[in-house]
């Protein structure tokens, strides 16, 4: 067994890459529960820490990214306890009650954790230095620095607004009205988190809707937050600052972004029939499943219900012949993390799939735009980049495969190409699997239990 990070410790990391190979698989069968939603897990820990009293969370994703957020909240004075697998208790200190950490906060690979916490710090009287792994240190932070500066926070960082970065919060912030220049739930949430400890009304105007977990959860914790949707779809989110948040019980659903991997594998492997339990089906997260259905996928939502303010369902996926489709740019925010696995589905479909307006893929955990184009090309797929669009020419039969893909610290690139290896003539390898633990600990055993062959 390799040494790895445990839910209670971040100290046992190794610097040796862990390669993996995926070989042609049989039909996938069975029922599985993928780990908890990463976006909701980060927020549950943060809002729990900002409430007054004891919140209880179950289904928490215990992936490396979320554990970084847990460690950060502890370093700022909240108390977080792990009671059992995925079950945590958070003793919050109240809005405005966090304290300056003694040391640098290392957020590892966690872009969401880093950006949202910058929002928290922006209106607390403290200075915090954030750093991260090589992937996070490459990612742009100016997109949050710009609106957070409007609250009076100041920043000192590397060129281009990169980590390591010091944030000094403003103890007497003024409320802000901010129109998002980029469709980003991270930027929206950073502004709302800064607005939490600001007297008066903070307003975010969102021309294109992005995942709304922050809004749903803040309402659940008792904040005075309203969302108005205009006829043209523009959302106005208004938050009254300095509420007393009350503690909550949060049931974190399984992550649709993780369910995407066994779902696409089941679609591609003839004879497959898989049920993925308790998956979050928030419409602002479910664009991949909509797109797969347009491609001809047999996907059924059973037992639809609500859990802690989020819609969930058991998702049944059966093998299907897929056709290429045109994916509109307007859908990108609802499936932004799913393009790598959609690209794999498209490579095995019949006809051209055009993914429009996917420029944001260039600033994810790696440059996913390039990773998709280069990785599929190496596996024998015809792919073209046209401006911000990617075109994938599916021939109706799986590609040849036979390549080893550089994961570049990107969990979703690693997992997507391992799914491709289940259907290609020759195995597909990934040079380093370690990043998979950021969002989907236990990925290979779970996929293998359904019938995949990852070793
Ligand atoms: C996330 C928002 C998205 C997504 C990320 C999680 C969130 O990022 O890619 O994995 O939890 O708010 P952007 O907001 O930058 O698009």
What features would you describe in this structure?
With 455 residues, the protein is of the alpha/beta class. It folds into two domains: 20-36 and 253-454, Enolpyruvate transferase domain (UDP-n-acetylglucosamine1-carboxyvinyl-transferase, Chain), CATH 3.65.10; 38-251, UDP-n-acetylglucosamine1-carboxyvinyl-transferase, Chain. The chain is built from 13 helices and 24 strands. The protein has helices at 38-50, 64-75, 111-122, 134-138, 142-150, 185-196, 213-220, 256-268, 287-294, 339-348, 368-378, 411-421, 443-450; strands at 20-23, 29-32, 52-58, 79-84, 87-93, 105-106, 127-131, 154-158, 162-168, 177-179, 201-206, 225-229, 235-240, 249-251, 273-280, 298-307, 310-318, 326-327, 350-355, 382-386, 389-395, 404-405, 428-430, 453-454. A four-stranded mixed beta sheet has the order 22-23-1-24. Helix 12 links the parallel strand 22 (404-405) and strand 23. Helix 5 packs parallel to helix 6 (185-196) and helix 8 (256-268) packs parallel to helix 12. The two termini are 14 Å apart. The relative contact order is 0.15. It binds shikimate-3-phosphate. Shikimate-3-phosphate (S3P) is lined by residues 39, 112, 184-186, 189, 211, 336-337, 360.
The number of strands is: 24
CATH superfamily of the largest domain: Enolpyruvate transferase domain
CATH topology of the largest domain: UDP-n-acetylglucosamine1-carboxyvinyl-transferase, Chain
Structural class: alpha/beta
Principal-axes shape call: globular
Describe the main β-sheet briefly: 4 strands, mixed
Spatial order of strands in the largest sheet? 22-23-1-24
């Amino acid at each position: 067994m390799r040494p790895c990070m445990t839910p209670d410790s971040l100290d046992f990391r190794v610097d040796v890459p862990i390669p993996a190979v995926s070989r042609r698989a049989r039909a996938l069968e069975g029922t599985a529960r993928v780990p908890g939603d990463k976006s909701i897990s980060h927020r549950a820990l943060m809002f729990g820490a900002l409430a007054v009293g004891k919140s209880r969370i179950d289904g928490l994703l215990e992936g490396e990214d979320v554990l970084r957020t847990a460690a950060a909240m502890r370093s700022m004075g909240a108390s977080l306890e792990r009671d059992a697998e995925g079950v945590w208790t958070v003793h919050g200190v109240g809005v405005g009650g966090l304290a300056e950490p003694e040391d640098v906060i290392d957020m590892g690979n966690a872009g969401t954790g880093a950006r949202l916490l910058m929002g928290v710090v922006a209106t607390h009287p403290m200075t915090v230095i954030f750093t991260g792994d090589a992937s996070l240190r490459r990612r742009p932070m100016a997109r949050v620095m710009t609106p957070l500066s409007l609250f009076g926070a100041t920043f000192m960082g590397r060129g281009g607004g990169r980590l390591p970065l010091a944030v000094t919060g403003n103890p007497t912030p003024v409320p802000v009205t901010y129109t998002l220049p980029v469709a980003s739930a991270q930027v929206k949430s950073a502004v709302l988190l800064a607005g939490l400890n600001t007297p008066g009304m903070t307003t975010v105007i969102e021309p294109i809707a992005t995942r709304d977990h922050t809004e749903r959860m803040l309402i659940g914790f008792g904040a005075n937050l309203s969302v108005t949707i205009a006829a043209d779809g523009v959302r106005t989110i208004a938050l009254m600052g300095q509420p007393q948040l009350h503690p909550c019980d949060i049931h974190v659903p399984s992550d649709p972004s993780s369910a995407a991997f066994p779902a696409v594998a089941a679609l591609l492997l003839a004879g497959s029939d898989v049920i993925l339990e308790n998956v979050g089906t928030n419409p602002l997260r479910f664009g991949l499943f909509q797109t797969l259905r347009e491609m001809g996928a047999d996907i059924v939502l059973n037992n639809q219900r609500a859990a802690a303010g989020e819609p969930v369902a058991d998702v049944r996926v059966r093998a299907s012949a897929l056709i290429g489709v045109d994916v509109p740019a307007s859908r990108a925010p609802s499936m932004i993390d799913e393009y790598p696995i959609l690209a794999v589905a498209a490579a095995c479909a019949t006809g051209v799939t055009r993914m429009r307006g996917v420029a944001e893929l260039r600033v994810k955990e790696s440059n996913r735009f390039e990773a998709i184009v280069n990785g599929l090309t190496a596996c024998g797929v015809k792919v073209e980049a046209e401006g911000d669009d990617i075109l994938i020419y599916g021939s109706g039969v799986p590609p040849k495969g036979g390549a080893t893909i550089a994961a570049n610290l990107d969990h979703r690139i690693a997992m997507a190409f391992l799914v491709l290896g289940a259907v290609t003539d020759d195995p597909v390898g990934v040079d380093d699997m370690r990043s998979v633990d950021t969002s989907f600990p236990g990925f290979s055993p779970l996929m293998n239990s359904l019938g995949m062959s990852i070793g």
